[in-house]
Every structure is written in structure tokens, then in C-alpha cells.
Design brief:
heterodimer, A: alpha+beta, OB fold (Dihydrolipoamide Acetyltransferase, E2P), Dihydrolipoamide Transferase, Chloramphenicol Acetyltransferase, 3 domains, 10 helices, 25% strand, B: mainly alpha, Non-ribosomal Peptide Synthetase Peptidyl Carrier Protein, Chain A, 4 helices, 52% helix
Amino acid sequence: MVQFVMPKLGADMTQGKLVEWCKKPGESIRRGEIIAVIETDKANVDTESFVDGVFESVLVQPHDEWLPVGTPLAVIHVEGEVPSELAPAAPPAAAPAPVAPSPSVARAIPAAVVEEAMARLRISPAARKRALDLAIDPARLVGTGPGGRITLEDVERVAAGAPAPVAAEGADRGQRMRDAIAATMARSKKEIPHYYLATTIPIAKALAWLESRNQERPVTERQLPGVLLIKATALALRQVPELNGFWRDGRAEQSQAIHVGVAISLRGGGLVAPALHDADKQSLDALMRGLQDLTKRARAGSLKSSEMTDPTVTITSLGERGVESVFGIIYPPQLALVGFGRIVERPWVLEGRVVPQPVVTATLAGDHRATDGHRGALLLDAIDRLLQEPEKL
Amino acid sequence: MSPELMSPDHLRGVVVQVLSDVAPELEAESLDPHAELRSQLDLDSMDFLNFVLGLHKALGVDIPEADYRKLATLDGCLAYLASKAKPG
């Protein structure tokens, strides 16, 4: 028996709304099947089950109220042993947390980090001390005191595993998304010692190859240069796997799979970076279709939970907006962010002569706790080399 | 309906409709026919591709990549589509 709780669909999510159940009590459900639609600050997310089992009972009916991450929503009956490692994004699904800090919570959030986060919260001194003692993730605290101040009672409530009441309503999605981005990016800049690298990559070969390929194709099958950049980055990460994965429990955790989060700006402000799964293994055609589909759904506000939580690295291309380079902020707990600027014609020295060449500036923001600049340089170099042989992408 | 069967007004209506599918906040009246669509509507390359795809779907025209620059403004776009209708 496990509880399906309000999932944490990304580092910036603290609360969600239950929009709809996609299963009825008594129906069986498989891992990866859509169980519910959850509204977050960024999208309505088709949320996938993290276990095989039978959807047993509903604890919460869909309603228009923000529920904190971790709120029990339904009970799933699981045959045999309950997997001890549930989906990384899902908080421990077992019974309400005991008052003593559970080892997983304590391990997941080093005291120093908690302390630092606390320093930024509006929180009473007694509540601060109690929360530190219990190693409670500050992100889970919702203030009910004056001006949204966190009280001792709020801490105790979270410690007891009870759902906290939700913070004052009223902000629209745009404002909430701004707030979520603000919190996550501030956390990233504060916690992650970023190092930055940049290199200029000649891209004439890749563009010529793509152009001649597109020429033979109807508009429905044409590809954008951005897809080459995504594929080259994914393949380069195979060669430099130290930059693909997460920073967890005080160390880097490399990921075998390469799920590339692509930063998609939303019309009207804000952005999301959902995953193109196994980008290194997909053909360019499949990646292009995936990117089109993802862009469309991101802008319509309809994404899948795995897309929100799976990215092992992020790519941002601000070149579309005319800038030549972008030095990004890592989306925690990822280890790196690769940026591409606009493709521009520049004087370039080729075999001793200066010739106009299209070039693109590739940048890397790396987590210095996990890797050094040397490793990062290898990644940018690998991307460069891969782009010089576009037919192999 | 193919472009050659359309009145200029009808063609304009179709183009604006396709554009507003890509950029829902578009206000047809305030669209400057001479200004670049990309900057006017904040279109990225994916948006622009979707615009071309939309024209393909609505009008049955296949627009080669080399001609994309002719679609830069609304006026340019209408002139290009009208010319596609004429032989040669």
C-alpha cells in the first residue's frame, strides 16, 4: 500500500492543484501511466504513476485549492514488496513522516543548506530552531503567521506530516511562475558555485548539410539548426558524462540516460525546460518532432510529469532573441547548463585566409562542486567536433 | 482553397488567422504590414516554422526554405503568396 502524494514536479514546485483523476478506484495502474492531472505554476501536468498496482481509493477530490507538495492524494495497492526507491521526484510515499527526522530527509538536505535557506525565510526564531533540529526542507514550510511569517505551529505541522494550509491565494499564474523562477534561481546562484566557459564554433558545414537536406523535404519534415545543437550536445555528454546528472547528498550523481531539458520561453513571460528523453539515442527527425510537440504543449500548458522531473541537463538557446551568447544559471539539482547564442556571420581564419563564416557561441555553466573547468572545456570541444561532422549526428 | 482562388482580403484573413494560431495575443488591427513579423510578434524559429506549416495546411502551398525571407512582413507574405498563384 502506498500513498500517491502531491508530487514535486521540479525544483521550483512547492504546491499544486489536483485538477482531475485519470483513474477510478478499482482500476489497475502501471508505472508510467497517467494517474492525475496536477496544475503547477507552469503547466497542467499529466502526472505518471511511479508504481504498478491498483488505484484503491481517493483521499482528495479535485478542487480549486493549492495543496503543498507531499499532501496525500490517493492510495495505491501494490502487490508484493513496495519498491524502496520510488521515483526520485516523488517524496517518500509511505505513511506520514515521524516527528524525528527521517534519514532520507536528513541526508537529502545538509544542515548547512537548510540553515542558509532558513536565513532567507520570514520565520520566527523558535520556528527556525525547531525546523533546523528536525532538518525540515524549508521549501515545505508555508507561513500562516502575520504577513506570511512561518510560525512554530507551521513547522510542527510539517513535522507531523500533516498538510499545511496553503499560502494566501490571489496571484495569477504569471506571478506564481515568476515567484517560482525567482526562488529556484536564487537558490541555484546561492548554492551552486558556477563556472562559465565559452567557445565560438564554426557552423558552416552543419548549416550547409541541413539546408541541402531540408531542400528535398516538404515543410512538414524540415528541421531547425537547433536540433543539431541538441543532438551534438547529447552525444558530447556521452563522452563527458561527468556533466550529465544531479548534485545529490553532497556529491555528483552521473546519469546513464541523457535527458535534455530544453528551455522554452512562454508567450507572455516565464519559461519551462521539459525533457527530450534519451536525446543521444534519437534520430534528428525524432528529436525535431519531439521538440515541436514539446514546444506546443509547453505553450499550451500541458506537460507530463516525467518531462518536468527527468532532465539531466538543460540547453538554452537565446540566439533566437538576437544575443550572441548566454551565460545561464543551472537548474538545480542538475550539474550543467549549455547555452547557444545566435548564429552570426563573422570573419574567420580558414587556412590562413580571413573569410566570412557563420559561427555560434556555445557556453557552459558548470557546477564547480562536481567538475572543474577542464572537464567543461572537454564538453564544449566535443560539441564543436561533433558539429563538424553533421552527417553523423 | 488555393491562393489563386482567393480575394486579397480573404488571403489576408487566412494569413492573419494562421499568425494568430502561432501568436495568440496578436491583434489584427494593430499589425504593421511593413514591420518584420518576427520582431513584431516575438516569433522564434519554431514559431516561424509553425507559421509556414500553417500556411501549408491552410493554402496547400509548399514554401521552400530559401523563400522564408520573403515572408518577413505581412505585406511581403501576401505578395509572395499571391505570386505563387501566378504561373512562372
